[in-house]
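Troubleshooting log. The previous run stalled partway through. Resubmitting the same two chains, unchanged.
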Amino acid sequence: MKCHQLIETPTHKWVFFGRDPEKPNKIIDTNQYMVITSNKALLMDPGGIELFAPMLANIVKMIPLEQLTHLFASHQDPDIISSLGLWDQTLPDAKLYSAWMWEGFIRHFGMDNISYEAIPDEGMSINLEQVELKFIPAHYLHSSGNYHVYDPAAKVLMSGDVGAALEGPEADIFVEDFDAHTQKMRFFHQRWMPSNTAKNDWIARVRQLDIEYLCPQHGRIFQGKQVAQFLDWFEQLDVGTGINRSA
Amino acid sequence: MTDQQPQKRPYYVIVAQVAAELNKTLASCRQINLTASNAQAASTRIGNSAMGFKVLTHFIDELASETQKAARDINYLARQASTLSTYIARSQMALKQFAHARQKLGTHTAQPAMKRAEEQTREKFHSQRSEFNGMIEQIQSNLDDLKKTLRTANALASVCRIEACRVDKQNQDTFIGVADKVDEVAEAIRQRVDTAVTLFTQTEEKEAA
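Second attempt completed without errors. Output:
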């Protein structure tokens, strides 16, 4: 599994994990992200149960496990959080932040020790020591209770399934040729994202944010000007096409 | 890491921590390689009086490569064992659920298909555990071998110091520096290996797995 430090500020750093070459073939490749401060860490979308062991191995190389105090699940899907039953045995004192509406569903993955911190519809902020992280609403993109993580100091937006592309584990971490990359994103966004209204509302809010890195949960990371390019591309894309396709 | 309480952790965590400890030794091995290269260059520059030392640098280089290979092999085994241990945890969870289902059945007889599934899971669980215990024994034995290899480092450092006496005062410091570096890095690696061994021995492996 690749492990790449995305950005380091005086107070914290962002780390990317993904592209596990030992991942079973038929499971979708996922990106995991971790924010590390001096004594705490937040792991975002920890991944499926098949990914637990490589994630654990990489995390203990970086920080003592006691430092991993916070988990975040952008939504309830198995590729996001089906490893929860094992994290629950590993980090009994951790907090899991996710949508209020998914608590009863996510607990099906097994959760006896970790405490569930429900995020309200309008989102919320937390402080990881002196670092403020905002859970911003991204409902219906694609899940009906969905959030992204924005870090104003590092200018990073962890954008969940928005910006995702379907590629193999050999793909690079960063987008190189934006136009070529849109071909790998189009079907995913059209089929998985159900609502143009939700999409446009999200784009309007995200355009107000200062973003240097847009980090999806699948595919590649957008940097600098590519962020605006992505928002423009996403805006003109008609989504929720599943009904038309099957008609 | 020494402040942690490994005996309270699931075994897949312990094995992952061992892999992480050994991963750090790889950087130390590269330091020994570099030291050996520098020493070799210095020996060539000095000429005949440093011939004995030049031979030693080959041994230092060899020692670093052996240590690096051993650390890589153990690291690989530890990662495999950690993955296997998560499968064991999953089989264990399934067995718990089967037991729970049987309890719910009460006086009713379990269906043959359910009995078969439970039996297969139990067999899988035992075979996974047996494979896991084999891996752990292998890791422990490799860690012991690595510790023996590291003892050679101290012997090499001592011989380096003796050879340093053969060259003029001006170059002695370079060679003594090499000996000190070999000692220092070997000690750092030994501490990591000891931490790895302690992580294992403080844990009741069969209980935790």
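Takeaways: Residues 1-7, 204-209 of chain B have pLDDT under 50 and may be disordered. Helices of chain B lie at 11-46, 51-105, 112-164, 169-201, 205-208.
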